[in-house]
Amino acid sequence: MISRKIGPQAYMQGLGRHTQEEVMCILRKDVEALSCFLGQKKFLFGDDPCEYDCSIFGLLAQALWSMPGSPHEVMAKKEFPNLKDYVYRVRETFWPDWNECILEPEQGGTRGKKEK
After folding, report:
1. pTM, to two decimals
2. Contact 79/60 with Cβ under 8 angstroms?
3. Closest Cα partner for 88 from 102, 74, 99, 75?
């Protein structure tokens, strides 16, 4: 049921018109361009983070932490170490309590707790 809805949407959007190999090639080129743009800078436009850093963080964090063992994770970690370091740097800048926030209270975290 879901694939019948998603398939035509992906085709109309354009992504569904490519093979899996073509999609990975497109992804690799995009990630390589981002890696080259970032280079050795701390953030995309220098020493201070901006909104674009937050957007890119969201996309790259998914590849690094939500897709274990996937080609996306392997590519991000092995082929583009500056992007991996960048994601950790953005995380530490904006969410120094990240690990605490993602753990349940019984694991010593604050996830699900309401602030007073």
Report:
1. 0.77
2. no
3. 99
